[in-house]
Amino acid sequence: MAQGIRFDVGFTSALIRAQRSLDLSLEEMGQVGIPVFKDQALNERDYGDLSGLNKEDARKKWGAEKVLLWRRSYDVAPPGGESLKDTAARVLPYYIQEILPRVLKGDNVLISAHGNSLRALVMVLEKLSPQQIVKRELATGVPLIYRLNADSTVANKQDLAA
Predict the structure, then answer these.
(1) Contact criterion met (CB below 8 Å) for 114 and 124
(2) How far apart are CA 153 and CA 41, in angstroms?
(3) Domain range spanning residue 34?
């Protein structure tokens, strides 16, 4: 088992790719059958008018500077989409209401989501500023393990990429 952890519950987004990643992880660890909660609160950031475009097409349409601003700022949203701040405003209430209570009662929780929804959680857990979180890269498919204190602060963090 990964680090000897047995999971009690899983949380994932409403998007198939995150659900599939969770399923594959649980299969690999021999832990299928745990309760899994799916919610759009954990969905990836909505890129609005940029959705479906590759970076080059977006740059041609709006300019490289504007696209970079939308992709790498904390509080500037692309047309019709969400900023990272907007994503955090969606993710964090779900974390506080649904995930954190399970952790605080002693459950081992596995979350499979997306770069920006996970970035919102990392920002809170690691007490990062907006300037720090936009520079933070999360490797795809590389687990981060957080152990929390009773007051919900991080007691220990392990990055399995390291």
Answers:
(1) no
(2) 22
(3) 12-44
